[in-house]
Amino acid sequence: MVSMVLGILLVLVALPLSAGAQTHGNLTLGSSLTADDRNSSWQSPSGEFAFGFRKMGRGAHLLAIWFEKIEDKTIVWSANGDTLAPEGSKIQLTTDGRLVLNDPGGRELWSPNPTVAGVAYAVLLDTGNFVLVSQNYVNLWETFNQPTDTILPTQQLDQGTKVIARYSEMNYSAGRFHFILQDGNLAFYATPTPLDVSDAYWVINTNGSGFQLIFNQSGQVYLTATNGAVLNLVTSDTVPTSAFYQRAILEYDGVFRQYVHPKTANSSSRWPRGWSVVSSPVPPNICTSIPLNIGTGACGFNSYCSLGDDQRPRCHCPPGYTPLDSTNEMNGCRQDFTPQSCDESRPETDQFTFNRLLHTNWPFSDYERSAAQTEDWCREACLVDCFCAVAIFSDEGTCWKKRIPLSNGVMDTSVGGKALIKVRIQNSTSKSTGDGQKKNKNSTLIIIGSVLLSSSVFVNLLLLLITCLIYRRFRSRDSKLLWAVQINQAAVTQTFTFQELQEATDGFKEELGRGAFGAVYKGVLRSQDANFVAVKVLATKTGEREKEFEREVSAISQTNHKNLVQLLGFCNEGQHRLLVYEFMSNGSLADFLFGSSRPSWYRRVEIACGVARGLSYLHDDCTRHIIHCDIKPQNILLDGSLTAKISDFGLAKLLMANQTRTTTGVRGTRGYLAPEWFRNMPISGKVDVYSFGILLLELICCRKNYEPEAESEAQIVLVDWVYDCYHEGSMLELVESDEEASSDIRRVRRFVMTALWCIQEDPALRPTMKKITQMLEGAVEVSVPPDPTSFLSSI
Ligand SMILES: *[C@@H]1O[C@H](CO)[C@@H](O)[C@H](O)[C@H]1NC(C)=O
Ligand SMILES: *[C@@H]1O[C@H](CO)[C@@H](O)[C@H](O)[C@H]1NC(C)=O
Ligand SMILES: *[C@@H]1O[C@H](CO)[C@@H](O)[C@H](O)[C@H]1NC(C)=O
Ligand SMILES: *[C@@H]1O[C@H](CO)[C@@H](O)[C@H](O)[C@H]1NC(C)=O
Ligand SMILES: *[C@@H]1O[C@H](CO)[C@@H](O)[C@H](O)[C@H]1NC(C)=O
Ligand SMILES: *[C@@H]1O[C@H](CO)[C@@H](O)[C@H](O)[C@H]1NC(C)=O
Ligand SMILES: *[C@@H]1O[C@H](CO)[C@@H](O)[C@H](O)[C@H]1NC(C)=O
């Protein structure tokens, strides 16, 4: 009786296990897996690796091998990155001894190449190697011999084996970077089909005696000679194998890195959780390592590469350029404006100005070089040349003209001189304006022109005018160029008369927005090469004395950071107090984030880091430490290339000095305001940290902090919902319908944890903005945050 009960129990216990259909041993002929929502897989005997399907998007599956026991389930090999398998596809070890991936219609999507037949069984080894074995136990084919971008301990690569980086972090199709053991040397290439080793951007040279590339058990990657002698260490750190998973990967940015991951989640704090890089990356700085005059360089055309604080390359568009593909920063940039006309009768030289980038160069795009010149000469030479897109001016006085497409762009302290980037001033003829509209404008011009030209008196007048203009242009060129630079460096505060600003805004006609301090209008400064500006009309009763106002404004205008909206000038005339800012063409983050087109995860990450850097600068780095006091999406603006810029900083001190702290919020809806505002507590920079935390959560989840109409009651208050999800480990719920974010769940977790630190009730527990910047960038470990409200209950 007892044994019968036991038996039933055993069956009950065993049933769900076998229903999971996880094979741990040899795969016999006829075995198959189907691509569906169950992520079906075959596992290695230890369960550490799995072979099977991974869902990459709606109805698109990748046949892959991955680390099964870690949260990321990091993929180490894949079969069909270029042609993802639709729902219902099947990988099959056929009864006639072939491994083949078929779509639901039976069409072959992938099979080992060259063709392998006569397989008796297949096995996924505990090393992560998937092997097809013949009747007489000969290995017919193994994934270790056909790597994708990753190599694993015990893997050995022979001559001619290619390791090809994927296209982007989440796109497993082949990218342009690869390395190959070629003529005994390990050569890294940035183009898919290079000519020969002279096209390589990095070569590990063994004088031709290299025979194999080995990743040994203890974590070293090296080249050996035919006799097994170690020739050259590629990565040199040894790792305690028993405690860490390891992999070495040629990443999509063209850099070969070796990673380790603790096997148990709670292992000593020496390593952060998740993968961390060991050994120095190869090459150490890819931005400066591609000395080739073919191809695009480390980044795409018209962009430039710089090494981030985390030692990873970043691709940026120069000012006036935007990414071709917003989902892949390595795809290059395009001009945001119509190129200069080469029509000699309409040279457009007054339509262009220069932005300056220090330590930046595009070494191979030049077509003309002039020695012993001044910077102004260099600008002018580029300005009058419609082919010139960028002028590089070296400290020694050499001027290079560069043309489109710019390639191999790099920004690095090792690069001398400066890049002068030619951009169109007027937006009116920008590419984005409809063609029809442009034609209309031109034709009206022509009509006006032809009517006027019919009078010969007018012709004379016109000639006179042109002569004057040319004369003035030559005289004023220097000051004009100077102004363009000053706008970018913004060291001066202009003063404007009220009338000037009234004219600039066409009588305050186009309202851009309205905030706590007054309304903002779009304007154009005709005196200054027609730059668009935003004019803020301050609510009049500011209570500040004249001198004090000017002192504050000049302090504000001295702040200069990529993530702050630049103050260009002001007007202080009796009742009228106005501030003039640079114009942000993409409006506020509130509209961008909560609008109809939800921004990509990558874009949101950039924005979060940008705002954090801007705040960190305000708090710590600028001469006067500024507390913003009103961080919220409405006060974050986006420029033409969607760079986040904080606006309205410095105004709190200027305008709220004597105001009592009034808050209209009700509990639960008080939004971005730190608890200090509601209690009798001193106000410090930590109020901005709190507000930033809320903003960060909104960026992560792409929703407002308070949504009375939310699906379930638990979701109404964002902070509560996030903490619940975090607490229960159901982080995916937060970014459910967001594939990009779901697949970057480790960063989501890091961001959520950072945000939870920011919104601690106790200001002392909140990190500084500088620390937060590092936490977001992954430069420091983020420890487990306490329940944000625990302080509340203790007082
Ligand atoms: C797989 O098959 C091989 C050869 O028959 C055998 O040596 C090995 O033990 C088998 N492994 C398992 C886990 O059954
Ligand atoms: C399959 O994998 C996806 C992402 O890798 C995951 O969201 C999903 O929960 C998995 N499904 C199952 C049934 O495990
Ligand atoms: C991956 O990138 C390639 C090249 O741009 C593109 O053709 C393909 O559609 C992308 N695949 C996915 C799944 O996005
Ligand atoms: C390659 O040859 C050069 C000069 O002949 C020598 O200095 C260098 O050590 C050699 N490198 C290897 C890896 O044998
Ligand atoms: C790995 O290679 C290093 C360097 O060649 C050597 O010291 C170490 O003993 C090797 N480890 C194993 C497990 O072979
Ligand atoms: C980590 O886990 C091991 C067993 O899995 C346990 O013995 C050890 O106490 C844990 N360490 C910590 C710090 O939790
Ligand atoms: C430039 O023109 C485009 C299209 O008309 C418009 O969306 C954008 O806001 C304009 N930018 C500026 C700086 O006026």
UniProtKB/TrEMBL annotation:
Cellular component terms (Gene Ontology): membrane
Assigned keywords, A-Z: ATP-binding, Disulfide bond, EGF-like domain, Glycoprotein, Kinase, Membrane, Nucleotide-binding, Receptor, Serine/threonine-protein kinase, Signal, Transferase, Transmembrane, Transmembrane helix
Domain Protein kinase: 506-792
EC numbers: 2.7.11.1
Membrane topology qualifier: Single-pass membrane protein
Domain Bulb-type lectin, first and last residues per copy: 24-145
InterPro entries per UniProt: Bulb-type_lectin_dom (IPR001480), Bulb-type_lectin_dom_sf (IPR036426), G-type_lectin_kinases/EP1-like (IPR051343), Kinase-like_dom_sf (IPR011009), Prot_kinase_dom (IPR000719), Protein_kinase_ATP_BS (IPR017441), Ser/Thr_kinase_AS (IPR008271), SRK-like_kinase (IPR024171)
Compartment annotation: Membrane
MF (Gene Ontology): ATP binding; carbohydrate binding; protein serine/threonine kinase activity
Catalytic activity: L-seryl-[protein] + ATP = O-phospho-L-seryl-[protein] + ADP + H(+); L-threonyl-[protein] + ATP = O-phospho-L-threonyl-[protein] + ADP + H(+)
Membrane-crossing residue ranges in chain numbering: 445-471
Residues annotated as signal peptide: 1-20
Record's keyword annotation contains Hydrolase: no
SUPFAM superfamilies the record matches: alpha-D-mannose-specific plant lectins, Protein kinase-like (PK-like)
Binding site for ATP: 536
Coiled coil feature spans: none
Domain of life according to the entry: Eukaryota
PANTHER family attached to this UniProt entry: G-TYPE LECTIN S-RECEPTOR-LIKE SERINE/THREONINE-PROTEIN KINASE SD2-5, RECEPTOR-LIKE SERINE_THREONINE-PROTEIN KINASE
Family, per entry: Belongs to the protein kinase superfamily. Ser/Thr protein kinase family.
The name this protein goes by in its record: Receptor-like serine/threonine-protein kinase
Classification lineage: Eukaryota, Viridiplantae, Streptophyta, Embryophyta, Tracheophyta
Originating gene: LOC115731170
